[in-house]
Design a protein that fits this description.
The protein is α/β, with parallel strands linked by helices and 326 residues long. 37% of the residues lie in helices and 11% in strands. The protein has eleven helices and seven strands. Helix 2 links the parallel strand 2 (71-75) and strand 3. The chain is globular.
């Protein structure tokens, strides 16, 4: 072999070695032949346990005080709590404003009963602000559709049911008062029996039969006083007439039998309907809508109204239920 031939042979050998070296230094193929070089992966670790959200402290959102008389007092719209983890109610038509100072007013009335006659009404107070929960609505509107609040709605209703059952253990017939506050133009109490303003404007002969389907329909049939029909709504022993005689104008009453056309009037809501005697029974319900100035605005005025409420309701319970404190 010539020198030139040797040089060509050497160069060829070196080229072959270079190619083999490049292949040998490449990344090994994976088991799936992908050649990514990542190698087989191990089993994926399972996710850690998910911590469930803390339960809502629903028992702290409703106050229940046992009583010693056949009277239940509910304050559904005076709550003072607005937990940040509860969304605001945004349902169509939802009312979210509180009835200012109605919780304080309910507490003042309960205390006034105890001071006067050493008896207390059963008291149920919703502590949540109305923008979070409405204590006078059916489930969906009350909670704004927020599913976690369903348990609270059920508890709240159960507390009212418990209070009503307790009141009936005191006396065979009981009365529920649903206490509210309004901002209407006419400063007077609005006494609600689930009877509309237009119905109250009817003649006595037409209105009378409707009382059987009111929230005091059972009382209409069984009042100890013998009063029935229109007399229960605006006669001299009607609740509105009792308040009017004590210096607190009220509708309906003997002096103000019905709202005029165009005047606002609340005639009762969910609590009055659910707890009243529309279909008969031994429990009646009345909604009292209070005006602000002179009733709810100051501690002195709340005290004065509480005293008048004790006087009016003691007379009402004795007249129509045959009950009085011993």
């Amino acid at each position: 072999m010539t020198a030139l031939g040797c040089m060509r042979s050497t160069r060829l050998a070196l080229g072959i070695l270079a190619i083999l070296g490049a292949v040998g230094c490449g990344a090994p193929a994976d088991e799936d032949g992908s050649g990514s070089g990542a190698g087989p992966t191990g089993p994926t670790a399972p996710p850690g346990p998910v911590t469930p959200p803390a339960p809502l402290p629903i028992t702290t959102w409703v106050d229940l005080e046992d009583g010693t008389m056949p009277l239940v007092l509910i304050a559904p719209h005076g709550g003072d709590l607005a937990p940040a983890d509860l969304p605001d109610r945004t349902c169509t038509g939802c009312v979210t404003g509180n009835d200012t100072n109605t919780r304080a007013l309910a507490l003042a009335i309960a205390a006034a009963f105890e001071l006067r006659v050493n008896r207390r009404p059963f008291l149920v107070v919703n502590r949540l602000q109305r923008r979070k929960f409405d204590g006078n609505r059916e489930l969906v509107e009350a909670t704004g559709g927020h599913l976690p609040l369903e348990a609270f709605w059920n508890l709240y209703q159960a507390r009212i049911d418990s209070a009503v059952a307790g009141a009936r253990r005191v006396h065979p017939r009981a009365l529920v008062i649903d206490l509210h506050g309004h901002g209407h133009a006419v400063p007077r109490l609005e006494i609600g029996y689930l009877t509309s303003a237009s119905s109250l404007r009817l003649a006595d002969s037409l209105l009378g039969p409707m009382v059987a389907q009111s929230s005091v329909g059972g009382l209409h049939r069984a009042a100890a006083s013998g009063d029935s029909g229109v007399v229960l709504l605006r006669g001299p022993r009607a609740l509105g007439s009792r308040f009017r005689a004590l210096g607190f104008p009220a509708v309906p009453s003997d002096v103000d039998p019905a709202p005029l056309v165009g005047q606002d009037y609340f005639n009762g809501g969910y609590n009055t309907s659910r707890r009243g005697s529309v279909s008969g029974g031994a429990v009646d319900a009345i909604q009292i809508e209070t005006h602000y100035t002179g009733v709810r605005d100051t501690p002195d005025n709340r005290f004065a109204f509480a005293e008048a409420t004790v006087t009016a309701l003691l007379a009402y319970l004795q007249d129509h239920y045959g009950w009085r404190p011993l």
